[in-house]
Design a protein that fits this description.
With about 180 residues, the protein is an alpha/beta fold. Helix content is about 25%, strand content about 25%. It has a single domain, classed as 3-Layer(aba) Sandwich (Dihydrofolate Reductase, subunit A). The model has no long low-confidence stretch (mean pLDDT about 90).
Length: about 180
């Protein structure tokens, strides 16, 4: 069974939206090494419509960003959207998810392959976590108060117990905490 994971940049006050606004000066070599290790094991990416649209406008021409650009441009990307069509998905290796998202992810998990990473989709990550399909959730907490932006969790979310699998502090003070849904 394949593993589904997500890693989100996170501020101390819980903001996960638009991390480029707050994490740029705290990204360090430790964090780069951790993220590269995840890339190596990942062979499929799940994305939401908003995240896919933002990333598709940047990454196809971002060759100066090296390894991640090569990875994200080459990896198959499965996109959850009710408003986009397959014809809209012009970014290389992008595929529209038809039908039920959760059934699609269950089928992907049952198929052979490496890790499936949920990227570029706050709502997508929440859906997968609360449906019990997220095997690991990594929050990369930067030592900053972002002040504004969307949070991963909302006040009316169900109580969900998580187990801490590992926690590491990088040289610039990022706390990288990986959780699994508790049994």
């Amino acid at each position: 069974m394949r593993k589904v994971m997500a890693g989100l940049f996170h501020s101390v006050d819980g903001v996960v939206e638009a991390p480029y606004k707050f994490q740029f000066d705290r990204f360090d070599d430790d964090l780069g090494e951790m993220l590269t290790a995840i890339q190596v094991e990942t062979d499929l990416v799940l994305m939401g419509r908003v995240g896919w649209s933002e990333w598709a406008g940047y990454w196809p021409t971002a060759s100066q960003d090296g390894d991640f650009a090569d990875f994200i441009n080459g990896v198959p990307k499965h996109v959850a959207s009710s408003s986009l069509t397959q014809a809209d998905l012009t970014w290389s290796n992008s595929h529209l998810i038809y039908g039920d998202l959760l059934e699609h992810v269950r089928a992907l998990k049952a198929a052979p392959g490496g890790t499936i990473a949920a990227m570029g989709g706050i709502s997508l990550v929440r859906q997968l976590l609360f449906a019990g399909l997220m095997d690991e959730l990594t929050l990369i907490t930067h030592p900053v108060v972002a002040g504004e932006g969307r949070h991963l969790f909302e006040p009316d979310d169900p109580t969900t117990r998580l187990d801490l699998v590992r926690s590491v502090v990088t040289t610039k003070g990022n706390v990288v905490s990986t959780y699994r849904k508790a049994d």
